[in-house]
Amino acid sequence: MLIPQSWDVSDLLGQSAVIEIVDSSTSGWGHIMIDEITFSDASPEVSLSRWVDFGPDFYAAVPFNGLSVADRVGIAWMSNWQYASSIPTSPWRGGFTIPRKLSLKTIDDRATLIQQPVANWTSLETVPEYTKSWDTVAEGTQALPLSGKTFDITTTFSDRTSTSSSSQYGLILRATSDLGQQTRVGYNFATKRLFVDRTKSGNVGFDGTFSSTYYAPLAPSSNGQVTLRILLDWSSVEVFGGDGQATLTTQIFPSDNGVDIWLFSTGGDTGGVKLNAKSIGSIYNTSSNPSSSTSSNKSSLVTSSTVSTSTLSSMTISTSPVSTTATISTTLSTTSRASPTPAAPYDFRPTYHFVPDQNWMNEPNGLIKIGSTWHLFFQHNPTGNFWGNINWGHATSTDLINWVHKPVAISDADGIQAFTGTSYYDPSNLSGLGTSVNPPYLAFFTGYFSSSGVQDQRLAYSLDQGTTWTKYSGNPIVSQQQESPHDVTKGLEARDPKAFFHSPTGKWVMILAHGGQNKVTFWTSPDAKSWTWKSDFTSANIPGLPSAITGWEVPDFFELQVDGTTTKKWVLIVTPANGSPATGNGVFGLTGSFDGAVFTADPIDTSTLWLDYGRDFDGAMSWENVPASDGRRIIAAVANSYGTNPPTNTWKGMLSFPRTLKLKQLNGKLQFLQLPVSELDATGTSLTKITNRILAPGQSLLADLHGKALDIRLNFIPAAGSTLSLAVRKGGNEQTLIKYSQSRTELSVDRNASGNTGYDPAAGGIHVAALQADSNGVVHVRVLVDECSVEVYGGEGESVISDLIFPAASSDGLSLTTDGGNVDLRSVEVRAITVF
């Protein structure tokens, strides 16, 4: 194995030296590759993570040319010169890996290459898919109800705290019934390595080196979970570990009768196991070749359906164990792969949450009210259902519920995309971009150069009440050269400007996020066009901030009055990429003081730091220019932290329902309070109202109600030890559970049985938030349910959990139950929301 070499050259300091590279090998084939020579005072470190792929069959990797920096895609020859001419294939020899999306991520304080199959790989996936969870997989092996030669399998599982050298978990692929032939793909808990064992994979005798086991280092994630994604093809296995920081590619040459798939757990039981498997169709149209439809081209699944046979393109797999099973066997079609097969019978388009008319959106931008119209701008790809080609999408509303789609407001042009930013009104025309009679509305945004990765700050303005926007001819207003002294990447990670006019100093203020640096910078300007750096605000300025909270983005900054007092606080809202209670990204808020140049944060309380405890509230931003007569600070975020993975076909990305944001002293702490905007109260129809009723264990309410777009309000007094459970989007084996535990004073959302959770390793799980009863002992919970989401508000809004769900269209039932004690239901109301 090639590893970095190091020498102590301290004795040569101040002298001239020559480094001579000599090939001392006397036999064999290979290269000497010198990619980098570095001089450092630090001790040498040998890191295996420098390898792009740890398998034997990944060679001569190259990226595709003509793509932007954000859209790098690579591919490699899947073979090895050691045995390339000997592999047992005819009439072909040699293949390529799946094209891989390439990106960088900071892991353990170092830039790490991330690889994942390109997004449109999913166009080959067929339904039904197999999804199942196990609290514990017992030691030993167990057959899965799967058989075939082409699968996309993702499994997540918990790390083990007690291990031995034999502590392993994984899958057995392309196995014969007696396991005489098998390829093992797994994880060793003791060594923290994923592995592929092909010693029994089939024909291994054509070369003396082929029968081997290969390893790749893979540490568990911060929440103790390990993820393996396995792409199985007829003669290959590609394994992607974690987020894609460890990959391992191998060829295998099994016999045709080896098609079974098993789980194995050795050296003990394995906990928290989830598995999702999708059958993969062919990329080739073989309709002209009759020999392509042979018995070896079939896949089968054992399901809990009572249907005896069906095509893979129309069946949905139920994974709950039942007493009877049926075998589904079908020949995979190779002629219908031109477009993706929908993963659900409908596209989950929400009833009262905003989504783009089509294609991709991420966080909201430039939120502003102009007259009676609420303007929503958002990161948008108008030409594709994936991140890229970013413009400012645009929609308007008069009630924050019914939205009208508008043309793109700020487009990408000349190789410069329009990244996130904010809008503000310039009533005194300080920018000079309007007139005193018709002052401009200003939009501040990041210009992203896809060819170089440079990010600078730019300005656009509107003179027609936000209908159309003109880019300022003097752009950029903050150049890469200005950013470089304050950004460790020299202007490659400075973005998301929040700009506003600060009346006490008579200056414009801009806050910039610096990706991966855990800081924002403050800038000022007399005219919103020429800017001067003033200060840095970093994690070091927040004593007690957990170190796991990293990767700050999308700052918002404004003043809020503490409810019931005359005290005002400056509020800084930040979206970190890591460290949220639900893992991954989230939104936290700080309070403090601001003098026009420097923000000083108040001491933090980690129990009140987060605005949302769910997985799907990201890039929060507030509407500006809301009249004082309204008086509300209203925020919204993008409800999606899974990129292109959610199983929607015509759109990606949804706006959270707009919510008010307040500050209030509550339970002895200054807390953020959030509740849905009151405009929702005027919509929909009441389905039921219940008052002053005791709910006892064994009883169930609301079972006669159905709905996929609901506003549910619960006010109750729980008995000691009781847990109240509200099930929504309930049908068959599916339900999303909202619970309140009296003993733990805890509100939770359980998505484990919510429907399709196999599209992303983080799509299931339970998310929790602390919640106390009010001074009268009453617990208040409000639940907004839509086609693909739940947003749960506890108390006065101090505890919020927002999550995406993807149940079947037929799963629209409800139930309200209790365990462990009675619950005094003071009031329950269920309203059906019907707006769009």
Gist of the model:
The protein is mainly beta.
Characterization of the model:
This protein has 836 residues and is mostly beta strands. It has three domains: 53-282, Jelly Rolls; 365-676, Tachylectin-2, Chain A; 684-833, Exo-inulinase, domain 1 (Jelly Rolls). Helix content is 0%, strand content 44%. The strands form ten sheets. The protein has an eight-stranded antiparallel sheet with strand order 11-10-9-8-15-6-17-18, with no helix packed on it. It has a six-stranded antiparallel sheet with strand order 5-16-7-12-13-14, with no helix packed on it. A six-stranded antiparallel sheet has the order 40-50-41-46-47-48, with no helix packed on it. The radius of gyration is 29 Å and the shape is globular.
